[in-house]
Amino acid sequence: MGTSTLSRFQRGALAQLVSEGHHTYQDMADALGVAKSTISYELDRVKPYDPELAQQDADHKRRACGRHSILTPSLTILITNHLRLTWSPEAIATAFNLSTASIYNWLKLGWLPFNLADLPNRNVRQRRANEHRVTFTSGTSIEQRPKSVNQRLAFGHWEVDTVLSSRGQSRACLVTFVERKTRLLWAIKAPNRTAKALNDTFGNFMGTFGSQVKSITVDHGKEFADYRSIEQDYQIKVYFCHPYSPWERGSNEYFNRWLRWFFPKKTNFDQITTDEILAALELINQRPLKIHHQQTAIESFRACSD
Q: Helix, strand or coil for residue 237?
């Protein structure tokens, strides 16, 4: 037999055969050169049979056939909520057995109520402003840091940096700490970026983490000038990066950008509460990390702490 679908002309001819009233399905199939099952399916489209309505039904089904998106309303909500929790599309795809490429496509098509440009680290281009703060040159170089620390095999070694308020608004800042092995991020607000404020903030940090801190790695900013007090008071080692080498504190740089997603560069940290900082830290530390095989930083940190 011929085709399994009918043309517009064939539908008109079928309507004529049906109106005559004495043809069997096989007779009509033979007359139109199609299978008997095609006639049966066609006459089931519209009852009583109308060739124009049957054509409209066929056109509609043809447009709807092919590959269908699996993006349901409930899945849209699920993905969007996790994007707002700062999960990456890759982490969401892994957690819920989806395709990373599909999530990016849905974002690009506007099928998800989330702006693609609002993804943290989306199209990041690092353009570091020329800083004019005072620096110093003493201290133990990062070149002397043990190999086990460099390779992130040892637990309890942190990178430390500062995140500033908008220029001209306030001297308040966040002092950020990232544990190198587990990537746990912590942040504490300081009134300014002086050595005294840094040391006071570090005391607060040690009050929380204590024995889980064995060394810190910092830059040569003036706020770290009183590093000897930190080494003596807490019996830990302070290592200094080379000048203008932020990649030597790569984890700190990376997670500072995540913090900036919550507190953009125009933020005045005088107006940010401790609860707001802790809420941002919880969201960041609860994200599954590919480097930990989808385990979160908090889970990894607790495993190392036990």
A: strand
